[in-house]
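Tokens for chain A. Residues wanted.
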């Protein structure tokens, strides 16, 4: 481990303590220690290996030295992990915005509910930040600028953030009369969990006029390039968009080329070459004669392949499958009938049972499992046995008022360090739906962590394993577990793996979905909604499921209300 990394972790502890408004001296101690580590010419790892006493370095005391040893051994430390659980997940990233200190970040969180960079961007754009005490228009502009800086250095955005941008941009493009047709390609079309940039294909008879129109879009902050065939811009927030112009006869080939992935393209092109043909973004050619290109289907067909759903185009066997026979019929969003994880004000959600039920129904769902936290998750105000049962009564009472809709009385029960569940078996057996998840004590040996999760799977009272790998995209690595053993246990005990639909989770990740399916495991989709706006994330879970080759029959939420009641007894 490099000194810079150790220093970053120490700084992170400082950040989190600051967000918690802890003792300023302690905070400063971590900052000084981080600075000291950065200033060391020798690697601390080497010093430690030589048996040198780290607490003799400037600004590093006994306690910090111990934490550094822990970091060197495990890559993190307990104190940091606990803090990470205690502070709302999106807050630390706010601190990366240059204009924003912890006090202001907390103020934004408390007064505007800002809990992510994107929420902050939206608040700034809506002019809500300038209304806060001590902020003003200038600060707001500075913050926006700062967000851009952060985004630019980072490189990739979460799918949902790209989707929000594309929704607005798409509506604008729809309104341009100079554009006949546009389509989004690239990683976005493939439904990846993060997106580097947006690739948009345009058909326009007058390209110059179309380009002029595009460049008038209000959220463009920078024109990166403009040519005959292409316009590249950067949007507010830092996301890059590449627009490329194509004529009708090439449009399908272009869509195929720019949807990628690169690995998929290369392999398909090789198939063309084997026949002495040429495949590029303008079409499939024999000499100068275009064999196909107007639609994607026509290109694949000419190569004796079925059309490949974009989510599968990763060179993971889809090309072979498309040559052999019908492609799998992947799950689609309109097949999803309900949501199997969400939170209410009983723990850390923002809405009541009834409000969540109403919102789920408005969204088009037929059922909703209310799964608040159990008591171990103290920061979220988790429920103990009595409270969980009382809550279940309240859910059932609300359910009785709803026609043709089922509110499942559920829980997201914490899987304790020992592998035991946080609530009594008797309590859990009373509930309609039990999701079990790991939240704390993440640093364990692979074997112990696997044992812990398998114990929960075998408990006999769990229906589903929540966010199975516990990863947070770009921020927290997946748990170190033996997935094969977990899948085997799940398959053996009829416990489903959740695909958690939160934009920064998407956990179980796509590649594991595929393996688990082949191992005979079933799945659920859980939006993990903490407010009524959360149900729309189901779309991201469906993307992930599709990328994992899942069919309708693999996912429990595609069952009708009646079928689900029967299955759950
Ligand atoms: P991203 O933007 O990093 O999330 O990922 P993509 O897949 O959108 O990649 P991007 O934007 O660089 O390019 C869009 C598509 O264009 C890519 O998926 C495949 C195609 N493409 C780009 N460069 C090449 C290349 O050098 N060879 C081939 N065969 N295809 C390419
Ligand atoms: Ca892209
Ligand atoms: Ca691109
Ligand atoms: Zn959870």
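Reply:
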């Amino acid at each position: 481990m490099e000194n810079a990394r150790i220093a970053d972790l120490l700084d992170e502890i400082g950040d989190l303590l600051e967000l918690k408004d802890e003792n300023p001296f302690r905070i400063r101690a971590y900052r000084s220690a981080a600075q000291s580590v950065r200033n060391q010419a020798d690697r601390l790892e080497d010093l430690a290996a030589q048996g040198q006493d780290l607490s003799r370095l400037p600004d590093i005391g006994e306690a910090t030295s111990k934490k550094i040893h822990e970091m060197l051994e495990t890559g993190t430390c307990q104190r940091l992990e606990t803090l990470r659980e205690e502070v709302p997940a999106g807050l630390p990233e706010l601190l990366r915005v240059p204009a924003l200190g912890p006090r202001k970040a907390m103020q934004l969180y408390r007064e505007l509910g800002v809990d992510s960079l994107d929420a902050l961007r939206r608040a700034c754009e809506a002019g809500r930040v300038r209304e806060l005490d001590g902020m003003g228009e200038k600060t707001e502009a500075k913050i926006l600028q700062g967000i851009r800086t952060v985004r630019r250095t980072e490189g990739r955005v979460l799918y949902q953030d790209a989707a929000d941008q594309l929704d607005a941009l798409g509506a604008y493009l729809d309104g341009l009369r100079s554009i006949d047709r546009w389509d989004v390609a690239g990683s976005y079309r493939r439904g990846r969990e993060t997106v580097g940039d947006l690739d948009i294909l345009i058909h326009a008879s007058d390209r110059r006029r179309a380009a002029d129109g595009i460049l008038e879009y209000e959220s463009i902050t920078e024109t990166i390039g403009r040519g005959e065939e292409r316009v590249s811009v950067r949007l507010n927030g830092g996301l890059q968009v590449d627009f490329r112009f194509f004529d009708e006869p090439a449009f399908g080939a272009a869509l195929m080329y720019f949807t990628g992935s690169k690995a998929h393209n290369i392999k398909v092109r090789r198939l063309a070459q084997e026949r002495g043909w040429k495949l590029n973004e303008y079409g499939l050619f024999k000499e100068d004669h275009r064999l196909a290109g107007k639609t994607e289907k026509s290109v694949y067909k000419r190569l004796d392949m079925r059309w490949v759903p974009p989510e599968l185009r990763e060179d993971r066997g889809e090309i072979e499958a498309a040559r052999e026979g019908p492609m799998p019929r992947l799950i689609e969003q309109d097949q999803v009938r309900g949501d199997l994880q969400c939170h209410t004000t009983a723990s850390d959600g923002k809405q009541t049972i009834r409000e969540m039920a109403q919102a789920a129904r408005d969204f088009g769902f037929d059922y909703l499992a209310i799964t608040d936290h159990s008591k171990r998750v103290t920061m979220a105000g988790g429920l103990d046995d009595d409270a969980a049962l009382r809550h279940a009564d309240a859910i059932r009472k609300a359910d009785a008022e709803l026609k043709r809709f089922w509110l499942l009385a559920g829980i997201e029960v914490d899987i304790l360090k020992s592998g035991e569940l946080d609530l009594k078996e008797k309590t859990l057996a009373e509930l309609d739906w039990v999701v079990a998840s790991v939240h704390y004590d993440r640093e364990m040996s692979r074997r112990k962590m696997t044992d812990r999760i398998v114990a929960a799977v075998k408990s006999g009272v769990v229906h589903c394993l929540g966010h199975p790998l516990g990863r947070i995209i770009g921020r927290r690595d997946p748990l170190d577990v033996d997935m094969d053993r977990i899948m085997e246990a799940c398959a053996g005990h009829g416990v489903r793996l959740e695909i958690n639909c939160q934009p920064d989770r998407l956990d179980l990740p796509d590649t594991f979905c595929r393996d688990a399916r082949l191992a005979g495991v079933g799945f659920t989709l859980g939006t993990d909604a903490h407010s009524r706006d959360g149900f729309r994330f189901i779309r991201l879970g469906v993307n992930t499921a599709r990328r994992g080759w899942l069919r309708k029959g693999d996912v429990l939420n595609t069952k009708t209300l009646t079928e689900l009641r029967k299955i759950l007894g």
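The CA atoms of residues 417 and 441 lie 6 Å apart. Residues 186-187, 195-197, 199, 257-258, 260-262, 265-266 surround 2'-deoxyguanosine-5'-triphosphate (ligand 1) (CB under 6 Å).
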